[in-house]
Amino acid sequence: MRLVSYRSDDAWRVGAVLGEAVYDVDAALIGSGRPGLGPQATTRRLLRAYGHALDDVAAAVRHAAAELPAARAGTVRDLPLGPPVTDPEKVLCIGLNYHDHVAETGRALPAHPDVFAKFASTLIGPHDEIRCTEVTDNLDFEGELAVVIGRTGRDVPPQAALDLVAGVMVLNDITARDLQYHGTQWLAGKAVDGSTPCGPALVTLDEVGDPQNLELATRVNGVRVQGSNTKHMIFSIADLISYVSRFLALSPGDIISTGTPEGIGSKRNPPVWLGPGDTVEVEIERVGTLRNVVR
Questions:
Q1: Counting Cβ atoms within 10 Å, is residue 205 exposed (0-12), middle (13-18) or buried (19+)?
Q2: 200: preceding bond cis by omega (within 30 degrees)
Q3: Are 293 and 124 in contact (CB under 8 A)?
Q4: Per-residue pLDDT tens digits for 167-198
Q5: Would you call 225 helix, strand, or coil by DSSP?
Q6: Which candidate, 278, 95, 275, 84, places its Cα nearest to that of 173?
Q7: Checking phi first, is residue 125 left (phi over 0); if not, alpha (psi -120 to 50) or beta?
């Protein structure tokens, strides 16, 4: 199942994608005789109610596609899409988690995951414009795979960690490098409002297969600048979830972005910075593609 957030009547709603069509998940649930999501029918609300039963949601959507034409909200081409999770409680990111990226930075391999945070205000949709050039002249790209938590968990062992995952999505950890290195903490460079495209959909693991073996590529104006596979992570997805859950209770809708491979703009000679008019794409096999223009 592929879940998106779309704008309707000045509110975000969760939709499920079948082909090009998007079905209102709340309407599908009610139409199939299941409890609805209430007035705030967001992805996070869905995961809180059905994170343990996403197969039921998929069945309701299939029923709606066959029997409830009114549940069809539109298509992925004509609906305004936002971040798959518009209101996460936590947005956590992992730095230095690919061997080649650590090498290009000249640092030692980390003994533990390097965790930093973003805010919901950083997130934008899969086709939204990146409007950060008035904040920084050193705008950099970082293509990543992000996981979305579907169930509550605390102190989870690695062997059970993927059971908490609702699905995965693509994320571009756009970074203001000058702000990042103004001090020893990375927050200023990583949490610029409207800086982090994600999506295009939250894809459940039954469609993705092994999330630890996915090809990833980043392109700037059509030129490939990053290319790797998630199997080259230093800390696996399961290990990251387990590590974070030792000190934070994970909740439905939480996002953990798992790090970027080598090829970032700041480590090129000369550096490659994103500027107005540039198009940056991040593609992950079986997950999707972000395509955002810098303004």
A1: middle
A2: yes
A3: no
A4: 999 999 999 999 999 999 999 999 999 999 99
A5: strand
A6: 95
A7: beta
